[in-house]
Amino acid sequence: MSIEKATLYVVATPLGNLGDISARAREVLAGVDLIAAEDTRHSARLLQHLGVTTRCVPLHEHNERQAVPRLIRHLGEGQALALISDAGTPLVSDPGYALVRAARAAGFTVVPVPGPSALIAALSVAGLPTDRFAFEGFLPPKAGARAAYLAALREEPRTLVFYEAPHRVVDTLAAMREAFGGAREAVVARELTKRYETVRSGTLDALIDWIQGDANQQKGEFVLLVAGAPAPPRRELSAEARRVLEALAAELPVAQAVALAQRITDAPRKALYDAALALKAQ
């Protein structure tokens, strides 16, 4: 493939198993003029494995303010750059947002080179609903802020996905139990694609017992997934609400009949609307 000048390539790299690097990612990393890496020492091992000798410079949360303008100047000189994180897809709870935003604002092309992502890998094997999910990244490290954050998600119906560090994983699972209840279904995905990969599902109560009972399961990189809140039980229409709706629906369009019936009876709008549609169909 040809490497375009004055282009920033956002390159996904393996989570752990080096066999997951794509042929395109390898070609891009070998072909660009410069690689911006979250940790150059960590990335050096991957690049050495790939036989890539492209020069690496650091780009992380502590040096972005100084590094981004320099990298934009390189793009302005016609150089091609690659952005990588320590593992997985850059910008997903990793540095890089400032560089991508600055490159786009300056009119440079930004090209994704997709590949591994711990978020997607965990979702694919968790056995929880994936048609809709909410990625929440890392929770606040302090207990009070973490508890408040989780409490705000108590009624969220989508599958919830979090990243967590090993030294906080037990406390975080305990905070999730406090917020969501011990019976809520959840999944712990640990060390994905690595030698000690573990994917464990169960209730929050069961998962806490399991992980507290095995110190080895408290090591590594974690993705925590929690089932969304169950839908509230559907309220059925009372006989009085149905009688009022029938009278109104006989004289008014559906929307007006439903609005008035709800105002009079305080019955749930969706139940009234469904019943009104059924009446009109008759």
Major sheet: size, sense and barrel closure?
Answer: 5 strands, parallel
Radius of gyration, rounded? 26 Å
Strand order of the largest sheet: 3-2-4-1-5
Quaternary structure type? single chain
What's the total number of strands? 10
Uncertain residue ranges: none
* Beta-strand residue fraction: 15-25%
Query: Helical element count?
Result: 11
End-to-end Cα distance, whole Å, is 63 Å
Q: What is the average of the pLDDT values?
A: 94
Shape: extended
Helical content band: 40-55%
- SS-based class: alpha/beta
Tell me the series of helices and strands, N- to C-terminal. Answer: EHEHEHEHEHEHEHEEHEHHH
Task: List the main descriptive attributes of the protein structure presented here.
282 residues; alpha/beta; five-stranded parallel beta sheet; five-stranded mixed beta sheet; 11 helices; 41% helix; 18% strand
Describe, in plain words, how this protein is organized in 3D.
The chain has eleven helices and ten strands. A five-stranded parallel sheet has the order 3-2-4-1-5, with helices on both faces. The chain has helices at residues 23-31, 40-50, 64-76, 97-105, 118-126, 143-151, 169-180, 204-212, 239-249, 254-265, 269-281, and strands at residues 7-11, 34-37, 56-58, 81-84, 109-113, 133-138, 159-164, 185-190, 198-203, 222-226. The protein has 282 residues and is α/β, with parallel strands linked by helices. The protein starts with 6 loop residues before the first strand and ends with a helix. Strand 2, helix 2 and strand 3 (56-58) form a beta-alpha-beta unit. It is extended.
Detail the topology: elements first, then pairings:
Blueprint: E1 7-11, H1 23-31, E2 34-37, H2 40-50, E3 56-58, H3 64-76, E4 81-84, H4 97-105, E5 109-113, H5 118-126, E6 133-138, H6 143-151, E7 159-164, H7 169-180, E8 185-190, E9 198-203, H8 204-212, E10 222-226, H9 239-249, H10 254-265, H11 269-281
Parallel strand pairs: 1-4, 1-5, 2-3, 2-4, 6-7
Antiparallel strand pairs: 7-10, 8-9, 8-10
